[in-house]
Amino acid sequence: MYKILVLAFISSWVFSFAYSQEKSSDTTITSIDADLINIFNQKTSKKYKVSAIKVTGNKYFDENLLISISGLSVGDEIAIPGGDNFSKAINKLWSQNYFSNVEIFITKLEGKNITLEIAVTERPRLAKYEIKGIKKGDLDDLKGKTGLIPGRVVTENMKRTATEAIVKYYAEKGFQNVKIKIDDRKDTSANNSVSLVFNVSKGTGYQTEKAAERHQRKNAFIPV
Fold first, then answer.
1. Where are the beta strands (DSSP E) in the chain?
2. For residue 199, what pLDDT is reported?
């Protein structure tokens, strides 16, 4: 089977075309679909009808859901070259923040009918997390503030939200120079999962707990 890669590595937004070749037991190529290989090299744009769509690489997400999000449907007419259906589909899937890579292949050409494959690479999920450099009492308080929930897809937004929650928590205690370093560690307890370690350096804050309490009381009441 030959695959034409219509858009790869979404971050670069560069069209890239390739085909993969299936070999027989003697490692020789059995046949070549020249029309499929040259479909994007045509001098004039032609319309093709989508006859089938499949999704590969998805383990946690329903295939029909991903096809729906992409906006592609069986029966669609797509202009090749020149159409923007594929770039729009990749953009829609990429915007979900659940994938580290999205590609679309044309895997089969029969007359004016094309078969599509949406290949996704899912982001890892959170296996567990640790917050180091803080007291146990603080850790108990922070558990409900960070938004970190094992099993969810790990995104940059997840890390940023957790970091901001920790910084805010200690700022209210008088620590204005909190530094946080996040370590991602591959977790072997489940497929495609990672553990996050938040290393917290609080820096210097108030000299005493009473001073911190006074600061909190001062900011809790606004004179009229």
1. 4-7, 46-56, 77-80, 99-110, 113-122, 125-132, 179-187, 193-201
2. 96
| Tokens describing residue 143 | 């558990």
Q: What is the pTM of this model?
A: 0.65
Distances (CA, A) of 126 to 14, 122, 166, 189: 31, 12, 18, 11
CB within 8 Å of 132: residues ≥ 6 apart: 197, 198, 199, 200
The residue ranges of the chain whose pLDDT is under 50 are: 1-2, 4, 6-31, 207-208, 221-224
User: What confidence score (pLDDT) does residue 202 get?
Assistant: 87
Q: Do you know the residue count of the chain? A: 224
> Distance (Å, rounded) from C-alpha 214 to C-alpha 224?
19
Single-letter amino acid code for the residue at 214: R
> What is the C-alpha to C-alpha distance for residues 129 and 43, in angstroms, rounded to an integer?
54
Question: What local confidence, expressed as pLDDT, does residue 14 receive?
Answer: 32
Q: Which two tokens stand for residue 219?
A: 């900011």
Residue 46 tokens, joined: 């032609």
Q: Using an 8 Å Cβ cutoff, are 196 and 154 in contact?
A: yes
CA distance 200 to 178: 7
106, two tokens: 């044309």
What separation in angstroms does the CA of 170 have from each of 174, 177, 202? 6, 9, 7
Q: Which amino acid is at 205?
A: G
Q: If you ran DSSP here, which 8-state letter would residue 148 be given?
A: -
Strand partners, 199: 132, 181
Q: Report yes or no: 152 and 126 within 8 Å, Cβ to Cβ.
A: yes
